[in-house]
């Protein structure tokens, strides 16, 4: 487009300006989208770090929770804990059965 305007003079100045404005708008939108994606990635990373910390230090986290947070935390903690314990028990049973056979 720049070549068409500067060298070949195949487009007029108003058309060049209009196209340049459209390109600049597209660039600005793409940069905004990249920025929003980076923010979302940071938010996700922060959430994962928080969850890891909360689950790794459950007792300390529990002490700092409000009553409403404790209710939510129990729901998360024990639903995951039950599945984890069931998997461990099942694994132990299978290991014992294979060692007997």
Provide a descriptive summary of the structure in words.
By secondary structure, the protein is mainly alpha-helical. The chain folds into two domains: 1-56, no CATH class; 66-101. It has four helices and no strands. The chain has helices at 2-8, 13-56, 58-64, 67-100. The longest helix has 44 residues, at 13-56.
What tags apply to this protein structure?
single chain; mainly alpha; 101 residues; 4 helices; elongated
Short description:
With 101 residues, the protein is mostly helical. Helix content is 91%, strand content 0%. The protein has helices spanning 2-8, 13-56, 58-64, 67-100.
Number of E strands: 0
Query: How far is it from the N-terminal to the C-terminal residue, by CA?
Result: 78 Å
The number of distinct structural domains comes to 2
**H/E topology pattern:** HHHH
Helix content: over 70%
Number of helices: 4
Which structural class fits the helix and strand makeup? mainly alpha
Overall pLDDT metric: 78
Tell the overall outline. elongated
User: Which ranges are low-confidence, i.e. pLDDT below 50, for 5 or more consecutive residues?
Assistant: none
Gyration radius, rounded: 29 Å
Major sheet size, sense and barrel closure: none
Strand content: under 5%
């Amino acid at each position: 487009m720049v070549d068409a305007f500067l060298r070949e003079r195949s487009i007029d100045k108003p058309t060049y300006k209009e196209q340049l404005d459209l390109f600049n708008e597209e660039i600005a939108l793409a940069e905004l989208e990249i920025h929003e994606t980076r923010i979302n990635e940071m938010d996700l990373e922060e959430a994962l770090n928080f969850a890891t910390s909360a689950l790794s230090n459950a007792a300390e986290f529990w002490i700092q929770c409000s009553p409403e947070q404790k209710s939510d935390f129990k729901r998360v903690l024990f639903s995951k804990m039950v599945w984890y314990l069931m998997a461990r028990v099942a694994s132990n049973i299978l290991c014992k059965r294979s060692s007997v056979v």
